[in-house]
């Protein structure tokens, strides 16, 4: 619920668990007051003060308050150069050439529901689920108006924020910083928790204390990249996985992002999230407007786990717009690790036949089906079926696979072009490059200039002319390089600073057109593994390939890390032929994700085939529990060198699936595992042994695996326990 108190000027935005408050102060200054656990108080205006005035902090014109300076109080949407020396959310270069920016309150409206964001992925909710506050602010000198949007999702306990900037002045202006949201906290008693990584080692969790000064995670790769994820949690120092206060901030954006935190000399952190200002500049002519990506914030009193579970449910219900978000998805096998480029139609049909016998429901033909694509040196951009390689048309191949009772999926890398391609020979200027410079190469490929509509149209038409010929059920959308020598030949010099954001808008446009034209196709994103694992992609594709690293032990930290911000239902995870662990453990780890296969089913031994059949049965058995249950990270692989434990609990607390993987056999086998999230009053039966335990016992005394099946577990082994309430 959102309320405005005319007397105090305080806006109070409540969800069922949280309160967010800000205030319209003298002279229209917008001051932040509070974000955290729900408060019953009506008047929160005193929360704006943070100690006595500093002598070097500027006075604010017309403000009759000796304690107020924009440099000291928490500012709701801080601007550049007008009295606040901390990092700013908005910086506009006006007609005079300076970047002094100062927006003040002019009005507001509160309404049920939530508007979409033109051209950008964003959360959604109906009028019963959410309410929106739009605050209008103005900088009278430039005529720039900033509309601050806040949507509260009452039941989810989540807020979504973005900013629309309009130029109502008479001259063009340039946005140099246009962040999506600012979060001001009163103490630095927090650790910064975030996800870093690289190819084949994505989403590793790291945690460190906030320090005075500026700390940031960012991308300037043109895409999110595996190096840092657009997500930050601020966890109170003593907060653990299940206890203590945690703020989660997630940005719905797939390009150059920034999560910037400044802890000022008073020890007050300011967090900004939005487009990375580096290499960003956006020209707004009079009458034009700009919308920032959306930021999502979560507050949890139940540690990092509570924050993750809130985000999981929220993204599943309010971000993943695909019909497949909640529909049962087919169990797939992907050809990549089974064949790489070395396949033909018959081989794929053979994969499908062998897979079908195991119960697998869909075959995905990965890279190598088009143009002259026999290796990764050529043909990106030539999205024409190589009928010679496939031994017929795509329709003929798909029909053969479908006749076996197996669905068919296909791989694309729509944003890329190889210099050795017909497309490049016809349109060399479509490959991104700054004039007068050599293109840096990466995987023998270049990036298509997705800022240009004619480029997007050409790729769209090529895709449609393939997709509409056959019964395609799934697309894997890959993206295997980042952007260098960034420039668009279609943009004038004064708009080159818009390139990176326009690129992302172009990708969203193409993804939107493809998913709108083929709404029944299940889209999975991928970027050299999990290089674009972000909420922007989740809007279009309900699953994202988490990593090219399919080693089950390495996958533990990758999947645990991704689970910090993303639902398990979104984590692309397959059983591959990677031999470090047995196929049982590979299956158990892939079950903590979308689950599928990435191997040659014909090469499995008879014994492995039986195991795969059992795994397929488990995929169906636990489908709902894993997708819609609550996920508990019990022992994280980044914290314990020996074991990794996790658990799913159904929403009604009637069903529990616990899994342990032994990374290294601990010396002491007696290590009871305490389950979480159960109903202490209920009694749970161990499906395997028939033994019954109370929820209280399983949570407080714990489960002794040294006597319950875990005794013989060696390095790389794993076990599961399934409990059902009686
Ligand atoms: C990178 C992806 O991560 C792989 O799964 C595979 O699709 C290759 N690209 C194909 O080139």
Structure description:
With 726 residues, the protein is of the alpha+beta class. It has three domains: 317 residues, alpha-galactosidase from lactobacil brevis (Beta-galactosidase, Chain A, domain 5), CATH 2.70.98.60; 211 residues, Aldolase class I (TIM Barrel, Alpha-Beta Barrel); 95 residues, Golgi alpha-mannosidase II (Immunoglobulin-like), CATH 2.60.40.1180. The protein contains 14 helices and 37 strands. The strands form six sheets. Strands 6, 7, 8, 9, 11, 12, 14, 15, 19 and 20 form a ten-stranded antiparallel beta sheet that branches. Helix 10 packs parallel to helix 11. The relative contact order is 0.09. The structure holds (2R,3S,4R,5S)-2-(hydroxymethyl)piperidine-3,4,5-triol. (2R,3S,4R,5S)-2-(hydroxymethyl)piperidine-3,4,5-triol binds next to loops.
